Amino acid sequence: FRPPTAAQGVPVCGGSDAPVEKPSPLQGMYYAITRMGQDGSSLRPSECLSFHEALDLYTTAAAFAGRQEQALGQLRPGFLADFVVLSGDVSADPERLQTCTVDAVWVGGVQRYVRPDASPSPRIKDGPGKHGMAWNVWGQCPCCRQSGPGRSAAM
C-alpha cells in the first residue's frame, strides 16, 4: 500500500475497486494497516501503514486529490464539518475497524444519520472559545465561524 511513487513525494489517497470490493473507507484502512489478504496471508508487510497514515489517505489526502483541501479533510475552523462517529476507538487495534459500526454521520456540520440502536454519546459541556465566547457544536466560537458552502455567516 506504500507504493514507490509515494516515497518520491507523489500524493496518494485512499479508495476502493468497487464493485469488486466494498466501497468502505474503514475496510480500506484495515488493509492499508495490516496488509492482510482475505485468506489471512500477509501481502508485503513492509508496506504496512500506521493508523494515522491510513486515516490521512481518506481525509487530508482525499481532499487534496479532489482539490478541496481548503474546505475538507480536516476538523478545523472554517472547514466543512463532515465526519462519522464510530461505535468505539479504532485507533489502537486495526481489528476493530472490521467490527465497529457507524453510529452517526455529520455533513456540513449537520447530523444526517444516527444509528437507531446507538448508545447516546455523553454531552460534553461547551467551553470558552476565542475571547471567552461560548463555543458552538462545531467547536468554534461565533466570531471564528466562517461562511461557505453548508455554513452560516459569522454572528
Q: Care to describe what's here?
A:
- Residues 7-113 form the Amidohydrolase domain.
- This is Amidohydrolase 3 domain-containing protein.
- The chain has five helices and three strands.
- It has 155 residues and is of the alpha+beta class.
- The protein has two domains: 4-121, no CATH class; 122-155, no CATH class.
- Strands 1-2-3 form a three-stranded antiparallel β-sheet, with no helix packed on it.
- α2 (25-34) runs antiparallel to α3 (51-58).
- The radius of gyration is 18 Å and the shape is globular.
- It starts with a helix and ends in a 41-residue tail after the last strand.
Q: How are the elements arranged and paired?
A:
Elements: H1 4-7, H2 25-34, H3 51-58, H4 60-65, E1 83-86, H5 96-99, E2 102-107, E3 110-114
Antiparallel strand pairs: 1-2, 2-3
Percent strand equals: 5-15%
Find the structural class using helix and strand composition: alpha+beta
Give the number of DSSP strands.
3
Tally of separate domains = 2
How much helical structure, as a percent, in the residues? 10-25%
Distance between the termini: 45 Å
Helical element count? Answer: 5
- Summarize the biggest pleated sheet: 3 strands, antiparallel
N to C succession of SSEs: HHHHEHEE
**Could you name the ranges where pLDDT drops below 50 across 5 or more consecutive residues?**
127-143, 145-155
* Rounded mean pLDDT score: 78
Computed Rg: 18 Å
Side-by-side strand order of the widest sheet? 1-2-3
Shape, principal axes of CA atoms = globular
